[in-house]
Amino acid sequence: MDEHTDQAQGNVGLNRRMLGKLLVIAVMMFGFGYALVPIYKQICELTGVNILTPKDISLKEISNSQVDLSREVTVEFDANTQGPWRFRPVVSSMKVHPGEMAQIVYEVVNKQAVKMDAQAIPSYAPQQAANYFKKMECFCFKQQTLEANEARQMPVVFYIDPAIPKDVKTITLSYTFFEVGGKTQSLAMAAQEQK
User: Fold this and answer.
1) Where are the membrane-spanning stretches (predicted)?
2) How far apart are CA 184 and CA 107, in angstroms?
């Protein structure tokens, strides 16, 4: 009897230690998952990729800017989609003088018969250009809600800081436009279940 009692007590002790270890691991995994969002934002800010930014600068700040007429920078525009829409810039590129205000328009068409929420995330090439590309107005500042089959033109008003290094002659502004909330996937799954 004593031998079985000692073994049972030993197993209880082992089980308690294992439970304690598993609880610590579960808490650490939850903490890591919770910390991923701010870590991701920091990595994106450091690398200049997929930055969700508020307005880069206010109109008051540029009232004294000088346009550098001695040089031009070619700005190329790109559009990528993650969802059921057509998304593109109205022109593929334009030449601007540093300090000069410019505007580009992107067109988007919701090809679904349902309302969709979407967000655009900008990225720049070369990466250092992100520090000199100043957006005054941009559809990327907030989520967009597109009604069923709605077509919309969305402007980006910007200028390039005259302090941009002289060796940067071309900047690519690329937007990825993606669905927020995943309604399309939910509707597709519901449609398949009805079949």
Assistant:
1) 22-40
2) 20
Amino acid at 148: A
Complete edge-to-edge strand list for the sheet that includes strand 133-138: 85-89, 102-110, 151-160, 133-138
pTM above 0.70, yes or no: no
Whole-angstrom distance, CA of residue 127 vs CA of residue 28: 34
State both tokens at 179. Answer: 């669905």
Q: Dihedrals φ, ψ of 128, to 5°?
A: -65, -20
- CB-count burial class (<10 Å; 0-12, 13-18, 19+) for 102: middle
Q: What is the 3-state secondary structure (H, E, C) of the chain?
A: CHHHHHHHHHHHHHHHHHHHHHHHHHHHHHHHHHHHHHHHHHHHHHHCCCCCCCCCCCHHHHCCCCCCCCCCEEEEEEEEEECCEEEEECCCEEEECCCCCEEEEEEEEECCCCCEEEEEEEEEECHHHHHCEEEEEEHHHCCEEECCCCEEEEEEEEEECCCCCCCCCEEEEEEEEEECCCHHHHHHHHHHHHC
